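Could you help me review a protein record that somebody else here produced? This is what I was given.
***
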Amino acid sequence: MRMEQLEYLAAVTRLGSLRRAAEELHLSQPALSETLRNLERELGVELLERRRSGARISDEGRELLPHIAEVLHAVDRLRQAADSQHQVSRRLRLGTVSAATATLLAPAIREFGATHPSTQVEVIADRQDGIQQHLTEGSFDLGVISYLRDDDPPPGLHTTELLRGRPVVCVRRDSPLAALNAVTVADLLAQPLIVMRSGYAMHRYVHRLLGGSAPSLSYATDGAEMCKLMVAEGLGATVLPDYSVLGDPLERGGTITCRPLADDSTELRVMIHRRRARSVPTAERDLHAILVRRAAEQRRSRPVG
C-alpha cells in the first residue's frame, strides 16, 4: 500500500468524480482508476462504485474514510515535524453555513494568518448536513454550524459551543420595519422576504415562524452573507441570528440594521466541530483555539439579554 493511493482516493471522494480528481492530480483517468483498483485488490474491498455516468465512493469505502483520513493526517504531521524550516505549507479546509462569517470567522482567520503565514485556510460554504458529512469523511478539518436550541449536534464529532443568540429581522435602515421596536409575523409577511434554502437551521425556523403563511414576495438563497447583501440592495427583509448581523461591516456602516421579533424566545447556537482524533495538527488546533477565544470575547462584549 502506498500513500499516494490513499491520497488519490481522498481526492476522488472530495471532488466527486475520477475525471475531476485526475485533472487535479495531473494524472490520466485510466492511470488513476488502475491505481485505485490495485488498492481495492490489496484491501479486498470495492472502494468505488463505477458506472457509465462516473465513479463515486462506495458504502464500504465510506466506512474506511475516517481511518484513511487518520493515516493521511498522521503522515502530514510527520512531514511537518521533519520540515523544521516550514518549507511545506499546510492547507486547512473549514466548512461554514455562513453563520457569523463576517463577525467572527473572518477576524479569526485574519489573526490566524498573522502567526501561520504558510498555512492556507480554505473556507467552503455548505449546508449543515454537507459539512457534517465532509467532517466525518475527513475532507474538512473544521466546521462552523448554526443550530436551533433543540437540535442535537452529531455525536461522532468533537463539538464546542461558540455563540448563542436570538433570531432578528434584518432590514435596510430606510425600511418601514426599521421604525418598529419589534417586528410581528404580520409585519414580516407584508414585506418582501429573503429566506435561506432548505438545509439551513434558519430555513426551518422561518418556516415554523410563518406557520404556513406566505409573504407578499420571497427570494431564496444560500447563506447569511448573501441574505445581508440582498437586504442592503433593497430587495426585502430577512431573518438571521443576531450574531450574524451585529458587528457586520454592513451594520457598522449603517446600511443594514436589525429588530427583534415580537413574542419570540427562540435561542440559536453556533457550534464548531472537528473530528475526534487522538492527535490534532498544530495549525488546526490553533485556529480552533482562536475561534473559541474570540467567541468568548464577543459574548462578553455583547451578552444575550
